[in-house]
Amino acid sequence: MASGGLQLLGFVLAFLGWIGIIISTAMPQWKMASYAGDNIVTAQALYEGLWMSCAMQSTGQIQCKVYDSLLKLEGSLQATRALMVAAILLGLVALFVAVTGMKCMKCMEDDQVKKMRMAVFGGVIFIISGLAALVATSWYGNRVARAFYDPFTPVNTRFEFGSALFIGWAASSLAILGGSFLCCSCPRRETSYPPTRGYPKNASSTGKDYV
């Protein structure tokens, strides 16, 4: 029963991580304009994401513009997009695979070994999904940090980490942790020994002696 609780906990954590990866991918706040320096502009806040750039006025009005052409984007941004989309698709596959192997589901009850393998396989896919998202967010964050500390970057064009990056880091960690719990929920197979055969009882003596 303990393995069943660990399995359920792992599935919930991995599912929450997958939802967080979707939210992080859709958010435009992957990096926000930094106002450190002499020229401080408080009239608007600038954000850039994987799909669009947004400007929020001091009145609270937000204006967003989708990137015009895919070919005009930087190769690193396209790679980040691809990794996040791959993480979402892998998480979707892992979701169906892990549900099939859950002990609380009626599917594949006649073969418990295959059912446990499905849960472990789903956990492995969740781990790969979380790693893909972690690589994408860390790579993007590294680029933002390098541009921020680059002395040749103008002060008014420097960016800082956005909230989407922090959500992506937390979500990828949950997906990896949940997938690990799913992999660890498979109980160890105990060595089974063949049942010992009892020796046949001696036939009852008939009172006749043979020479």
Structure description:
- The protein is of the alpha+beta class.
- The protein has a domain of 134 residues: Up-down Bundle (Butyryl-CoA Dehydrogenase, subunit A, domain 3).
- It is built from four helices and five strands.
- Strand 2 and strand 3 form a beta hairpin.
- Helix 1 runs antiparallel to helix 2.
- About 3% of the residues have low confidence.
- This is Claudin.
- One of its GO terms (cellular component) is bicellular tight junction.
- It comes from Oxyruncus cristatus (sharpbill).
Summarize the topology:
Layout: H1 2-26, E1 31-33, E2 44-48, E3 52-57, E4 62-66, H2 75-101, H3 112-149, E5 159-161, H4 163-184
Antiparallel strand pairs: 1-2, 1-5, 2-3, 3-4
Helix pairs in contact: 1-2, 1-3, 1-4, 2-3, 3-4
